Amino acid sequence: MIYPGQVLTIPGSDEVHVVAFGETLGRIARKYGSTASSIASANSLSNPNLIRVGQELIIPAVANSGSGGDGGKTAGDAITDRTGQYHVVKRGENLTQIAAQYSGVTVDDLIRANGIVNGFIYAGSALYLSGPGYVASGSAGETTYKVRSGDRLGDIAHSNGVSLSTLTTVNKISNPNLIRIGQNLIVPTGTRWVCPVDNASFKNDWGFPRGGGTRYHEGNDLFTRRGTPVKAPVSGTVRFVTGSIGGLQFSLDAGGGVRYVGTHMDKFGKEGKVKAGDIIGYVGNSGNAARTNPHLHFGMYYKGTPVNPYPTLVAHGCT
Q: Which residues, in sequence order, are bridge partners of residue 314?
Protein backbone atom coordinates (compact mmCIF):
# COMPACT_ATOMS: atom_id res chain seq x y z
CA MET A 1 0.00 0.00 0.00
CA ILE A 2 1.25 3.49 -0.79
CA TYR A 3 0.12 6.70 0.82
CA PRO A 4 0.33 10.43 0.05
CA GLY A 5 3.78 11.81 0.83
CA GLN A 6 5.44 8.38 0.78
CA VAL A 7 8.77 8.00 -1.02
CA LEU A 8 9.30 4.75 -2.93
CA THR A 9 12.75 3.73 -4.19
CA ILE A 10 12.62 2.10 -7.61
CA PRO A 11 15.34 0.50 -9.76
CA GLY A 12 17.79 2.88 -11.38
CA SER A 13 17.94 5.15 -8.29
CA ASP A 14 14.94 7.18 -9.41
CA GLU A 15 12.32 7.73 -6.72
CA VAL A 16 8.56 7.95 -6.76
CA HIS A 17 6.76 10.59 -4.72
CA VAL A 18 3.06 10.15 -3.98
CA VAL A 19 1.40 13.57 -3.95
CA ALA A 20 -0.02 14.58 -0.57
CA PHE A 21 -2.82 17.03 0.23
CA GLY A 22 -1.78 20.66 -0.28
CA GLU A 23 1.45 19.92 -2.15
CA THR A 24 2.54 21.81 -5.25
CA LEU A 25 5.10 20.73 -7.81
CA GLY A 26 7.41 23.53 -6.64
CA ARG A 27 7.25 22.35 -3.02
CA ILE A 28 7.90 18.74 -4.05
CA ALA A 29 10.86 19.87 -6.16
CA ARG A 30 12.40 21.75 -3.22
CA LYS A 31 11.94 18.67 -1.03
CA TYR A 32 14.18 16.66 -3.36
CA GLY A 33 16.62 19.40 -4.35
CA SER A 34 15.17 19.33 -7.85
CA THR A 35 13.22 21.75 -10.04
CA ALA A 36 9.58 21.79 -11.02
CA SER A 37 10.52 21.78 -14.71
CA SER A 38 12.68 18.63 -14.46
CA ILE A 39 9.98 16.72 -12.56
CA ALA A 40 7.34 17.94 -15.02
CA SER A 41 9.52 16.75 -17.90
CA ALA A 42 10.18 13.35 -16.30
CA ASN A 43 6.46 12.80 -15.85
CA SER A 44 5.31 14.34 -19.16
CA LEU A 45 3.20 16.92 -17.34
CA SER A 46 1.77 19.41 -19.82
CA ASN A 47 0.57 21.67 -16.98
CA PRO A 48 2.81 21.62 -13.85
CA ASN A 49 0.04 23.36 -11.90
CA LEU A 50 -2.26 20.35 -12.28
CA ILE A 51 -1.29 17.49 -9.97
CA ARG A 52 -3.65 15.47 -7.82
CA VAL A 53 -3.54 13.83 -4.38
CA GLY A 54 -2.33 10.24 -4.70
CA GLN A 55 -0.62 10.83 -8.06
CA GLU A 56 2.77 9.09 -8.41
CA LEU A 57 5.58 11.34 -9.65
CA ILE A 58 8.97 10.06 -10.78
CA ILE A 59 11.81 12.06 -9.22
CA PRO A 60 14.83 11.87 -11.57
CA ALA A 61 17.92 10.33 -9.96
CA VAL A 62 20.04 13.38 -10.78
CA ALA A 63 17.95 15.37 -8.33
CA ASN A 64 19.27 13.29 -5.46
CA SER A 65 23.00 13.30 -6.24
CA GLY A 66 25.03 14.00 -3.12
CA SER A 67 22.21 13.08 -0.78
CA GLY A 68 22.84 10.64 2.02
CA GLY A 69 19.27 9.34 1.75
CA ASP A 70 17.45 7.86 4.72
CA GLY A 71 19.41 4.67 5.19
CA GLY A 72 22.60 3.95 7.09
CA LYS A 73 22.39 6.79 9.59
CA THR A 74 24.79 6.39 12.51
CA ALA A 75 25.18 8.54 15.59
CA GLY A 76 27.73 11.29 15.07
CA ASP A 77 27.29 11.47 11.30
CA ALA A 78 26.27 14.57 9.41
CA ILE A 79 23.39 13.58 7.15
CA THR A 80 21.91 15.59 4.30
CA ASP A 81 18.19 14.98 3.85
CA ARG A 82 15.59 16.84 1.83
CA THR A 83 15.10 19.63 4.38
CA GLY A 84 18.76 20.34 5.11
CA GLN A 85 21.79 18.95 6.94
CA TYR A 86 21.51 17.52 10.42
CA HIS A 87 23.67 15.74 13.01
CA VAL A 88 22.70 12.52 14.79
CA VAL A 89 23.73 12.91 18.44
CA LYS A 90 26.22 10.47 19.95
CA ARG A 91 26.01 9.46 23.60
CA GLY A 92 27.90 11.97 25.76
CA GLU A 93 28.00 14.76 23.15
CA ASN A 94 27.03 18.31 24.05
CA LEU A 95 26.10 21.29 21.90
CA THR A 96 29.56 22.83 22.08
CA GLN A 97 31.20 19.65 20.81
CA ILE A 98 28.69 19.28 18.00
CA ALA A 99 28.99 22.90 16.85
CA ALA A 100 32.80 22.58 16.75
CA GLN A 101 32.53 19.80 14.16
CA TYR A 102 30.93 22.05 11.52
CA SER A 103 32.33 25.19 9.94
CA GLY A 104 30.18 28.25 10.56
CA VAL A 105 27.82 26.50 13.02
CA THR A 106 27.52 27.93 16.55
CA VAL A 107 25.81 26.69 19.69
CA ASP A 108 23.24 29.47 19.22
CA ASP A 109 22.57 28.19 15.69
CA LEU A 110 21.82 24.71 17.05
CA ILE A 111 19.57 26.08 19.79
CA ARG A 112 17.64 28.29 17.39
CA ALA A 113 17.27 25.73 14.58
CA ASN A 114 16.08 22.98 16.92
CA GLY A 115 13.98 24.89 19.44
CA ILE A 116 16.14 23.82 22.37
CA VAL A 117 14.86 25.58 25.48
CA ASN A 118 16.31 23.51 28.31
CA GLY A 119 19.78 22.66 27.03
CA PHE A 120 19.04 18.92 26.91
CA ILE A 121 19.81 16.85 23.84
CA TYR A 122 19.25 13.13 23.46
CA ALA A 123 21.54 10.45 22.03
CA GLY A 124 20.19 9.18 18.73
CA SER A 125 18.12 12.28 18.01
CA ALA A 126 18.69 14.43 14.93
CA LEU A 127 19.69 18.08 15.31
CA TYR A 128 19.31 20.36 12.33
CA LEU A 129 22.44 22.43 11.67
CA SER A 130 20.36 25.22 10.17
CA GLY A 131 16.70 25.99 9.82
CA PRO A 132 13.93 28.52 10.46
CA GLY A 133 14.09 28.05 14.25
CA TYR A 134 11.44 29.35 16.62
CA VAL A 135 8.18 30.38 14.95
CA ALA A 136 5.50 31.35 17.43
CA SER A 137 2.55 31.82 15.09
CA GLY A 138 1.36 33.07 11.74
CA SER A 139 1.36 36.71 12.76
CA ALA A 140 1.72 37.85 9.16
CA GLY A 141 -1.47 36.12 8.05
CA GLU A 142 -5.04 37.29 7.93
CA THR A 143 -8.58 36.06 7.53
CA THR A 144 -11.89 37.81 6.85
CA TYR A 145 -15.11 38.23 8.82
CA LYS A 146 -18.46 39.25 7.34
CA VAL A 147 -20.47 41.53 9.63
CA ARG A 148 -23.85 40.15 10.69
CA SER A 149 -26.92 41.79 12.17
CA GLY A 150 -26.28 42.78 15.79
CA ASP A 151 -22.48 42.59 15.54
CA ARG A 152 -20.36 45.15 17.36
CA LEU A 153 -16.74 45.76 16.41
CA GLY A 154 -15.56 45.22 19.98
CA ASP A 155 -17.26 41.82 20.14
CA ILE A 156 -15.79 40.81 16.78
CA ALA A 157 -12.31 41.79 17.97
CA HIS A 158 -12.69 39.85 21.23
CA SER A 159 -13.98 36.66 19.57
CA ASN A 160 -11.06 36.68 17.13
CA GLY A 161 -8.40 37.38 19.75
CA VAL A 162 -7.38 40.81 18.44
CA SER A 163 -7.61 44.27 19.96
CA LEU A 164 -10.25 46.78 18.92
CA SER A 165 -7.54 49.26 17.93
CA THR A 166 -5.84 46.67 15.70
CA LEU A 167 -9.11 45.88 13.95
CA THR A 168 -9.94 49.56 13.36
CA THR A 169 -6.40 50.33 12.10
CA VAL A 170 -6.19 47.37 9.70
CA ASN A 171 -9.62 48.14 8.23
CA LYS A 172 -9.15 51.94 8.25
CA ILE A 173 -12.30 52.45 10.34
CA SER A 174 -12.51 56.01 11.68
CA ASN A 175 -15.61 55.35 13.82
CA PRO A 176 -15.75 51.86 15.44
CA ASN A 177 -19.47 52.33 16.06
CA LEU A 178 -20.16 52.50 12.33
CA ILE A 179 -19.96 49.11 10.64
CA ARG A 180 -22.53 47.71 8.25
CA ILE A 181 -24.15 44.32 7.75
CA GLY A 182 -22.34 42.37 5.04
CA GLN A 183 -19.12 44.36 5.42
CA ASN A 184 -15.97 42.20 5.09
CA LEU A 185 -13.42 42.94 7.81
CA ILE A 186 -9.76 41.93 7.62
CA VAL A 187 -8.80 40.08 10.82
CA PRO A 188 -5.06 39.55 11.47
CA THR A 189 -4.19 35.97 12.49
CA GLY A 190 -1.54 34.81 14.88
CA THR A 191 -2.23 37.46 17.53
CA ARG A 192 -3.81 34.84 19.81
CA TRP A 193 -2.34 31.38 20.44
CA VAL A 194 -4.27 28.54 22.08
CA CYS A 195 -2.81 25.24 23.34
CA PRO A 196 -4.00 22.54 20.90
CA VAL A 197 -5.04 20.20 23.75
CA ASP A 198 -5.56 20.77 27.47
CA ASN A 199 -3.80 18.85 30.27
CA ALA A 200 -1.38 17.12 27.90
CA SER A 201 1.80 15.34 28.92
CA PHE A 202 4.72 15.82 26.53
CA LYS A 203 8.44 16.38 26.24
CA ASN A 204 10.79 17.78 23.64
CA ASP A 205 10.82 14.65 21.47
CA TRP A 206 11.63 16.59 18.31
CA GLY A 207 14.21 14.73 16.25
CA PHE A 208 13.75 11.36 17.98
CA PRO A 209 14.32 8.35 15.69
CA ARG A 210 11.25 6.75 14.13
CA GLY A 211 10.72 3.74 11.90
CA GLY A 212 13.79 1.86 13.09
CA GLY A 213 15.99 4.92 12.67
CA THR A 214 15.10 5.52 9.02
CA ARG A 215 13.30 8.80 9.79
CA TYR A 216 13.03 11.34 12.60
CA HIS A 217 10.22 12.89 14.58
CA GLU A 218 9.07 16.19 13.08
CA GLY A 219 6.90 17.35 15.98
CA ASN A 220 5.87 16.68 19.57
CA ASP A 221 3.48 13.99 20.84
CA LEU A 222 0.89 15.43 23.24
CA PHE A 223 -0.52 12.60 25.38
CA THR A 224 -3.93 12.98 26.99
CA ARG A 225 -7.31 11.23 27.28
CA ARG A 226 -9.08 9.87 24.21
CA GLY A 227 -11.78 12.25 23.09
CA THR A 228 -10.05 15.37 24.44
CA PRO A 229 -10.94 18.27 22.11
CA VAL A 230 -8.24 19.41 19.70
CA LYS A 231 -8.32 23.20 19.33
CA ALA A 232 -7.10 25.44 16.54
CA PRO A 233 -3.99 27.12 17.98
CA VAL A 234 -4.53 30.20 15.79
CA SER A 235 -7.05 31.51 13.30
CA GLY A 236 -6.76 30.21 9.77
CA THR A 237 -8.06 27.60 7.36
CA VAL A 238 -8.37 23.91 8.31
CA ARG A 239 -8.40 20.99 5.91
CA PHE A 240 -8.75 17.30 6.83
CA VAL A 241 -7.10 14.22 5.35
CA THR A 242 -7.08 10.54 6.27
CA GLY A 243 -3.99 8.36 5.75
CA SER A 244 -2.66 4.94 6.74
CA ILE A 245 0.21 6.48 8.73
CA GLY A 246 -1.22 9.63 10.34
CA GLY A 247 -4.80 8.40 10.51
CA LEU A 248 -7.26 11.27 10.89
CA GLN A 249 -5.24 14.45 10.35
CA PHE A 250 -5.73 18.19 10.19
CA SER A 251 -3.70 20.83 8.37
CA LEU A 252 -4.13 24.45 9.50
CA ASP A 253 -2.86 27.20 7.22
CA ALA A 254 -2.18 30.12 9.55
CA GLY A 255 -0.83 32.54 6.95
CA GLY A 256 2.63 34.04 6.78
CA GLY A 257 4.08 30.72 5.64
CA VAL A 258 3.12 28.97 8.90
CA ARG A 259 1.24 25.67 8.84
CA TYR A 260 0.21 23.46 11.78
CA VAL A 261 -0.57 19.75 11.50
CA GLY A 262 -2.08 17.24 13.89
CA THR A 263 -2.38 13.48 13.38
CA HIS A 264 -3.83 10.31 14.95
CA MET A 265 -7.15 11.97 15.84
CA ASP A 266 -10.26 9.99 16.79
CA LYS A 267 -12.79 12.28 15.10
CA PHE A 268 -12.81 15.42 12.99
CA GLY A 269 -14.26 18.74 14.15
CA LYS A 270 -14.73 22.07 12.40
CA GLU A 271 -13.24 22.48 8.93
CA GLY A 272 -12.67 25.54 6.75
CA LYS A 273 -12.29 29.00 8.25
CA VAL A 274 -11.66 28.76 12.00
CA LYS A 275 -10.55 31.05 14.79
CA ALA A 276 -8.17 30.28 17.63
CA GLY A 277 -9.82 27.93 20.13
CA ASP A 278 -12.33 26.35 17.73
CA ILE A 279 -12.61 22.56 18.15
CA ILE A 280 -11.17 20.98 15.01
CA GLY A 281 -10.97 17.36 16.21
CA TYR A 282 -10.63 14.93 19.11
CA VAL A 283 -7.60 13.05 20.42
CA GLY A 284 -7.23 9.38 19.47
CA ASN A 285 -4.66 6.90 18.18
CA SER A 286 -5.68 6.36 14.56
CA GLY A 287 -3.29 5.40 11.78
CA ASN A 288 -0.07 3.69 12.80
CA ALA A 289 -0.52 4.83 16.44
CA ALA A 290 -3.13 2.14 17.16
CA ARG A 291 -0.86 0.39 19.69
CA THR A 292 0.09 3.57 21.57
CA ASN A 293 -1.74 5.61 24.17
CA PRO A 294 -4.05 8.28 22.74
CA HIS A 295 -2.15 11.40 21.73
CA LEU A 296 -1.96 14.20 19.20
CA HIS A 297 1.16 14.35 17.07
CA PHE A 298 1.55 18.13 16.71
CA GLY A 299 3.80 19.65 14.07
CA MET A 300 4.69 23.08 12.72
CA TYR A 301 6.04 24.04 9.31
CA TYR A 302 7.44 27.34 8.11
CA LYS A 303 7.46 27.75 4.32
CA GLY A 304 7.41 23.96 4.03
CA THR A 305 10.28 23.31 6.45
CA PRO A 306 9.51 21.45 9.72
CA VAL A 307 10.00 23.50 12.90
CA ASN A 308 10.16 22.21 16.47
CA PRO A 309 6.84 23.22 18.13
CA TYR A 310 8.19 22.66 21.65
CA PRO A 311 9.28 26.26 22.40
CA THR A 312 5.95 27.57 21.11
CA LEU A 313 4.03 25.16 23.36
CA VAL A 314 6.17 26.14 26.36
CA ALA A 315 5.97 29.87 25.62
CA HIS A 316 2.17 29.69 25.69
CA GLY A 317 1.93 27.72 28.92
CA CYS A 318 0.90 24.37 27.46
CA THR A 319 3.06 22.36 29.91
A: none
Report the phi/psi class of residue 256: left, alpha or beta, with left for phi > 0 and alpha for psi in -120 to 50: left
Closest Cα to residue 18, out of 30, 28, 6, 31? Answer: 6
Give CA–CA dist 314/60, Å, rounded: 41
Question: Could you give the C-alpha distances from 176 to 179, 191, 294, 300, in angstroms and in order?
Answer: 7, 20, 46, 35
Give the C-alpha separation, 223 to 205, whole Å: 12
Cβ 303 vs Cβ 257: under 8 Å: yes
β-strand pairing of 220-223 with 247-255: unpaired
Find all residues with CB under 8 Å of 270, minimum gap 6, and list them: 232, 238, 278, 279, 280
- Tens of pLDDT, residues 132-167: 666 654 444 567 788 988 899 988 887 766 778 778
pLDDT tens digits, one per residue of 110-126:
887 777 866 778 777 77
What CATH number belongs to 209-309?
2.70.70.10
What is the pTM for the complete model shown? 0.57
What fold, for 142-188? Membrane-bound Lytic Murein Transglycosylase D; Chain A (3.10.350)
Where do the DSSP E strands lie in 179-304? 184-188, 209-210, 215-216, 220-223, 229-231, 236-243, 247-255, 258-268, 272-274, 279-283, 295-302
d(CA 5, CA 20): 5
Sign of the Cα torsion 48, 27, 246, 226 reads negative
DSSP 140: T
CA dist 277 and 72 (Å) reads: 42
CATH 3.20.20.70 for the 7-64 domain, yes or no: no
- As a residue count, the chain comes to 319
What is the assigned CATH class of domain 78-128? alpha beta
